[in-house]
Amino acid sequence: MVMPIQESGRARRQALRSGKHRGTDAVESFSRGFQALGELAMDGVQVSARATDLATGRVLFSVDDHVVMPTASIGKVLLLIEVAAKLRDANFGSYMILDRTTSDSVGSSGIWQHLQAPSLPVADLAALVGATSDNLATNVLIRAVGLNAVRERTEELGLTRTALLDLVRDHRGPDDAPQLSVGSAKELTWLFTALARGEVVDANTSERVLGWLSLNTDLSMVSSAFGLNPLSHRESDHGMLLVNKTGTDSGVRSEVGVLRGPRAGVAYAVSTYYADTRLSSRLAVLDGMRAVGYDLLEYVH
Hints:
- The protein has a single domain, classed as Beta-lactamase (3-Layer(aba) Sandwich).
- The protein is built from ten helices and eleven strands.
- It has helices at about 10-20, 25-30, 30-40, 75-85, 120-130, 135-145, 145-155, 185-195, 205-215, 280-300; strands at about 20, 45-55, 60-65, 70, 95-100, 120, 165, 180-185, 240-250, 250-260, 265-275.
- A hairpin with a 5-residue loop joins strand 2 and strand 3.
- Helix 4 (about 75-85) runs antiparallel to helix 5 (about 120-130).
- The longest helix is centred in the C-terminal third of the chain and has 22 residues, at about 280-300.
- It starts with 8 loop residues before the first helix and ends with a helix.
């Protein structure tokens, strides 16, 4: 099982101080984000981040991007990839109706739990996952395609540090996976770059996944710096287009995405793991992630 790699506080702080820049322009463009992430690391936050130029693949910055971090709902992207790939099968169509059951029930994110409809088509459930990270829809889709199939697809993609580990649960016991998903910033930026290029399974599969993710309403982390309408950003806004997925859990804030602008496009991933004992700690993490977002915005716009 893929598990988070623990590193000493000293190692994390050193990584943030030195950083891995690529080129003078990158140093200038991302100094604000590096400083913000460095301050978080000094306060004991585990940080992993990476950004690459979408056209050239050039690494713009990286901080412990090989480290496996808890990523909460970001692992649902792997589920959406498997669902989109399954839609190529005539026996698993987008209009196939799936029922929710008592065993699927879970709270927290999503709106299906608040709706009266007991059944929805596969494509609608995928759209709910993309738009609101719907936990109930996630569990129903996992039951339909199988967690093992998601794992096999993940391995076929060559991902070894990124995985969807379990169903969504209200409470995790000692026999459950400790996290819903884990991932490394390096693999996540590769995955979203491949999606943007139509290279995940095939072009149609990649396009379906991007379409579902483009509905995402959570722009509270890195993407809070982009000034986009969280409820409607599928069309170009000041020359910018965003597709992203976030993950939120106790002590976890993580985001991966692709941002295109008038000057350039980037794939990025930022994950943080911290002691969520004070509101000020959480707000500091969100401020640090937003600082990286400002740097990304300056690079693409």
